[in-house]
Design goal:
This is Cupin. With 115 residues, this protein is mainly β. The protein has a single domain (11-106), classed as Jelly Rolls. The chain has helices at 42-45, 47-50; strands at residues 11-14, 19-26, 29-36, 59-65, 67-72, 77-80, 85-88, 92-97, 102-106.
Length: 115
Amino acid sequence: MSSLNIATPNEVRPFRAHGHMDVVTLDDFTLGMGTFEPGWRWSEDVKPIAGTESCQVRHTGICVSGQMVIRMDDGTESTIGPGDVVLIEPGHDAWVVGDEACVLYDTGVAAYAKA
């Protein structure tokens, strides 16, 4: 058995502004705890790092605090909040709603917020 604690991640990936992703990797399993601060928007905070027009990562996880809007490239939108378990396919933008940080645990972060 292997274990690590998200409070002491293997890696911290800072966003351009407004938060960071703490990443823990065990063998072929990667888990991220994203802290998306008020004002965070993928197209402003991660797009310069990723270099793609929209987020091309498939996210699977759970929101534990705050709220975030996800807008797919086809224009459909959803708002997620605490307790919501999500599957977000590639091709989206997203932004924090309100004045509380949105915290998400995400298993789809092996390549997230990396150049």
